[in-house]
Design brief:
The protein is of the alpha/beta class. The chain contains eleven helices and five strands; from the N terminus they run H-E-H-H-E-H-H-E-H-H-E-H-H-E-H-H. A five-stranded parallel sheet has the order 2-1-3-4-5, sandwiched between helices. Helix 3 (59-69) packs across helix 10 (199-219), helix 7 packs parallel to helix 9 and helix 10 (199-219) packs across helix 11.
């Protein structure tokens, strides 16, 4: 009985240790995942908000899924408001940022400005205040540009299209020239209004912008280094 009792006691001890180590490992893994998750805020209008789409089809959701697949542990917050202009985006910038500093803000505004025929100088001023304000806070920013249609007139088109590269350069932000690249004027990728992308169209947008997003995260240091990576090493290759 003494040997049997000792054996049982020894087994129970090792079983308890195994349980503690396993549970502790799970907690540690969960804590590490939470600690290293990158926070991305998508500040935009209906193109960001997901107008006419299911919640899981919106740009931020699809971008987050694509980033995770690429080995970038990120949470992409939807700070898009349908119908918003650059002025609206500026007015809610502090709300969008929240209490903590994001690893990246994607600014995708301006489409409603030209749809309403708002003065180019007003749009430029708002964008400069948004991107400049983020720069002053030390927040890495990716400017997702818009392009005015030729129907607005050559002068308006040229002045409007120059806003995004000019503002990005002046404030040290990253630039993705056209948010709707590969989707604009493609009937099968847009809803009936010809303006808002379908879920498939959003998928194309995400595929096109992904390298720019990852490059911004890598260059801003959010992905760590190859020696101490936060993101999968494949992400560094994708960033070029």
């Amino acid at each position: 009985m003494g040997v049997e009792a000792a054996t049982i006691k020894n087994w129970a001890f090792h079983f308890s240790v195994a349980i503690v180590l396993t549970f502790g490992g799970l907690l540690g893994s969960s804590w590490a995942q939470e600690k290293t998750s990158l926070r991305i805020v998508a500040l935009g209008d209906s193109l960001t908000a997901g107008y006419g789409l299911a919640t899981n089809e919106a740009f931020p959701v699809q971008l987050q899924a694509a980033l995770e697949k690429a080995g970038v542990p990120a949470v992409v917050e939807n700070a898009g408001v349908s119908g918003d202009t650059t002025r609206g985006g500026l007015s809610r910038l502090d709300w969008a940022l929240g209490a903590s500093t994001p690893n990246l803000v994607i600014v995708a505004l301006g489409g409603n400005d030209f749809l309403r025929g708002l003065p180019v100088q007003s749009t430029r001023s708002n964008m400069d205040q948004i991107v400049g304000g983020l720069a002053q806070r030390g927040v890495p920013t990716l400017v997702a540009g818009m392009l005015a249609p030729p129907s607005m007139g050559a002068e308006y088109e040229a002045a409007f299209n120059a806003i995004y590269p000019d503002v990005a350069k002046a404030n040290g932000a990253f630039l993705y020239p056209f948010f709707l690249d590969g989707v604009a004027f493609e009937r099968e990728l847009n809803q009936r209004d010809g303006i808002h992308p379908t879920a498939q169209g959003v998928g194309v947008m995400v595929e096109r912008i992904m390298p720019a997003v990852i490059e911004a995260l890598v260059e801003a240091g959010a992905c760590g280094t190859l020696e101490q990576p936060v993101c999968d090493p494949a992400a560094f290759e994708l960033a070029g």
